[in-house]
Amino acid sequence: MAELRELASSAGAEIAGDFIQSRPKPDPATLIGRGKLEEIAGAAASAHAELIIFDHDLSPSQQRNIEDAVGVRVIDRTQLILDIFARHARTREGQLQVELAQLEYLLPRLAGRGIEMSQIAGTAGGGRGPIGTRGPGETQLETDRRKIARRIRYIQQQVENVRRTRTQQRQRRESVPIATVALVGYTNTGKSTLFNALTRASVLESPRLFATLDPTIRSLQLPSRRKILLSDTVGFIRNLPHTLVTAFRATLEEVQRAALLLEVSDVTSPIAAEQNAQVEKVLRELEAQNRPRLHVRNKTDLLPAARRDALQDDGNTVHVSAAKGIGISTLLDRIDAMLQEDALSRVKLRVPQREGKALAMLEGQARIFSRAYRDGFVELDAQVPASVLRKVQSFVGD
């Protein structure tokens, strides 16, 4: 319920109250049963509520039955998340993906109403149907369905164009030995704050859920002087609507192809284990569950001192405070150690001083541990990426 409150607040709602219903099984007509529905209707009327939100998916008939009983608009969890996505999408790509998800959610609901009307018209009056069950009502629904289906096909084509462009960009990137590292995790765990701390970018940081929808990629230099591309992605959430996962597949392909996933979690969350399980579920849906992964436990600055001091990093986990910059250097070292792309080698180099271009390249792209000048040569002890080593191979000494 706390998460539903956060979602509602992110959508701009002012919350008047909440209700919990426990039943052995859902009521097929109203989900929650007539008694609880009357209680909610009374509370909504006294609070002058304009909207009721269910933390559960509603069938089209359940939604209509509840609206008839309470007299105000009713939406379910999926509609709420779609609304938040629509509010936060800034780029043309993000807006297309959200609209696609909304239309795919709406179409079966329109179709459901059309089927119900067809059944009424087909069974009453010997197959011809009584007055009022045929004509403009059903015709309008059929027209709406055709319009929506056409719009879905158009947007799918546009999203496919985006996907093709992304694929071409990725192929160009992959022709150069630069690894992509993707931030993934539950919504509001501080991914964008961590992204900014690592890259010194200015991506929107917000305590609201789904503040980041549009993907952002920035270049980042590791301690080894290798460069990587860091990608910030949309946050995951419990019961993330399948239509959204499908619609955002073009964006989330960065996750599928990443050399390393940084799975960010909120160390202060009492339900961190459940949130991590939801992240795992979405990664499976994206077929990215087997990508190399480093767990980044964020927001350590919000813990009591005793708990913070007891935290221990291990081979798979690093503890950080992105907001305070704590643990960032350790995280960068760990990313460096885990990446296999453009492999590092420790070598001794003897470079003529006249080779200014080679020396400048080593200065900018290699990690130099010692440097000495002898007889017109610069002798270096350095850690060098494979792409650089190929260019200076003739200067490698014993």
Explain this structure.
This protein is α/β, with parallel strands linked by helices. It is 47% helix and 17% strand. The chain is built from 14 helices and 11 strands. It has helices spanning 2-10, 34-47, 60-70, 77-88, 92-123, 136-174, 191-199, 242-247, 249-257, 272-285, 305-310, 328-338, 356-365, 386-389; strands at 51-54, 73-76, 179-185, 216-221, 227-232, 260-266, 293-298, 317-319, 344-352, 367-374, 377-385. The strands form 3 sheets. It has a 6-stranded mixed beta sheet, with helices on both faces. A 3-stranded antiparallel beta sheet has the order 9-11-10. The chain is elongated, with a radius of gyration of 28 Å.
Number of helices: 14
> What CATH first level of the largest domain would be assigned?
Alpha Beta
End-to-end distance: 66 Å
CA radius of gyration:
28 Å
Biggest pleated sheet: 6 strands, mixed
Q: Report the portion of residues in β strands.
A: 15-25%
CATH superfamily of the largest domain: P-loop containing nucleotide triphosphate hydrolases
Which strand order spans the largest sheet, edge to edge or round the barrel? 4-5-3-6-7-8
Kindly identify the CATH topology of the largest domain.
Answer: Rossmann fold
Helix- and strand-based class? alpha/beta
Q: What is the H/E order?
A: HHEHEHHHEHEEHHEHEHEHEHEEH
- Number of structural units classed as domains: 4
What are the low-pLDDT stretches, counting only 5+ consecutive residues below 50? 112-138
The helical percent reads 40-55%
What is the number of E strands? 11
**Shape by Cα distribution:** elongated
Let me know the average pLDDT.
82
